[in-house]
Design brief:
A 5-stranded mixed sheet has the order 1-3-10-4-7. Strands 2-9-8-5-6 form a 5-stranded antiparallel sheet. Among the domains are: 76 residues, Serine Threonine Protein Phosphatase 5, Tetratricopeptide repeat (Alpha Horseshoe), CATH 1.25.40.10; 134 residues, Immunoglobulin-like (Sandwich). The chain contains 9 helices and 10 strands. It is an alpha+beta fold. Strand 8 and strand 9 form a beta hairpin. The two termini are 47 Å apart.
Length: 365
């Protein structure tokens, strides 16, 4: 029995036992090892949580065998959309007007009620406006009476002419003092001699025996390690793929994403995987290092395998569209790449075969 047969048998047994989490993990690895197995795809569709994931698996089965009755029936059931309930808007009840005490009960029309309310509001507005104008007029009359009976007599014209050459008179009721101009003889200013510059005494230097400071060597701070640069394919931005930086303290080792690339349908050549390499601080592959792949319904941990170049250490097949998958390295804080999946920027909701290539390296911030 091959490794694929063992994985398939264990996955089917877990699915029959109701352990969907273990079944998804085993069957995902089975389809990764043998993407042409109809049985593996059928059982994987039975343990997935989302209708979209089950539909993807069944479409894969029909791509391998268009006559598969189980896949046809399952896909038809998933794609059947039942119409939702029709909501009918009910008119709101109109409030009834309560009749006055002793008056015969009758209902007023809404239009007449609104008209009466407008007339009442208009009458109240004019009553308030008239009251305000009456208060203002009374205030003005009071001020004028006070200025007429209590104000002082206007100043004499001679005094005004001596002080203010302007013909403008001061307003009534304002007290203004009168001044008589008296000519004064002002002596011309005398030139005050400027003070002569007196030389300041030269300080005498007193020699004291002060010990000269010894030269103390200054230790330069140790240089901080330089983080390796990150190579980022600019097309990833248009796909909605991004990096969530690892939350680490200064000097703490972590997994840094140093390279991220993407290949379109033509460049991928029919492949549809996330390829990952994990390197030590010297740039060597770390065989056996686990890598975590996450999606909406589950996650899967795959180890880095010792594969000859140009094969990558981890090969995770994708079957869902953009925005479905995330990848990070286990064992220490790690940068996390999110938003990956099949499709392009022009067709983000189609399972167009594309690939992602990620390289993580262990560094210290």
């Amino acid at each position: 029995m091959t490794a694929f047969d063992l994985l398939l048998a264990q996955g089917i047994a877990a699915a029959k036992a109701g352990n969907k989490s273990a079944a998804r993990r085993l069957l995902s690895e089975a389809v990764r090892r043998n993407p042409d197995s109809e049985a593996a795809w059928i059982w994987l569709s039975a343990v997935l949580e989302t209708p979209q994931g089950r539909a993807l698996c069944l479409r894969r089965v029909l791509a391998l065998n268009p006559d598969n009755r189980a896949a046809q029936q399952g896909l038809a059931a998933l794609e059947k959309v039942e119409p939702g309930p029709v909501l009918v808007a009910q008119p709101l009840p109109r409030p009834a007007v309560q009749p006055a005490p002793g008056a015969p009960a009758r209902r007023l029309q809404p239009q007449r009620t609104l008209a009466l309310g407008g007339v009442v509001r208009q009458q109240r507005f004019w009553q308030i406006a008239v009251a305000c104008l009456a208060v203002v007029a009374l205030s003005l009359v009071t001020l004028l009476a006070y200025a007429t009976f209590n104000g002082s007599s206007p100043p004499e014209p001679e005094s005004l002419a001596a002080v203010i050459p302007s013909p403008t008179l001061a307003p009534r009721g304002t007290l203004r003092p009168t001044f008589t101009a008296t000519p004064t003889h002002t002596r011309p200013p005398t030139d005050t001699p400027s003070p002569t510059d007196t030389p300041s005494p030269t300080p005498t230097h007193t020699h004291t025996d002060t010990p000269s400071p010894t030269d103390t060597p200054t230790l330069a701070p140790a240089p901080r390690p330089t983080l390796p640069p990150r190579t980022w394919d600019p097309r990833l931005d248009s796909l909605g793929v991004r990096v969530e930086a690892a939350p680490v303290a200064p000097g703490q080792p972590y997994w840094r994403l140093v390279d991220a690339r993407w290949t379109d349908e033509r460049q991928s050549g029919g492949k549809h995987s996330i390829y990952v390499e994990v390197l030590d601080p010297h740039g060597n592959r770390i065989v056996g290092q686990p890598v975590t792949f996450e999606w909406a319904s589950d996650s899967l941990i795959l180890p880095v395998e010792d594969r000859p170049p140009p094969d990558w250490g981890v090969n995770f097949p994708m079957y869902n569209v953009l925005g479905s998958y995330a990848a990070s390295v286990c064992g220490a804080p790690s940068d996390r790449v999110v938003g990956m999946g099949l499709g392009t920027a022009e067709t983000p909701y189609f399972t167009v075969h594309t690939c992602f290539y990620l390289t993580f390296r262990r560094v210290e911030r």
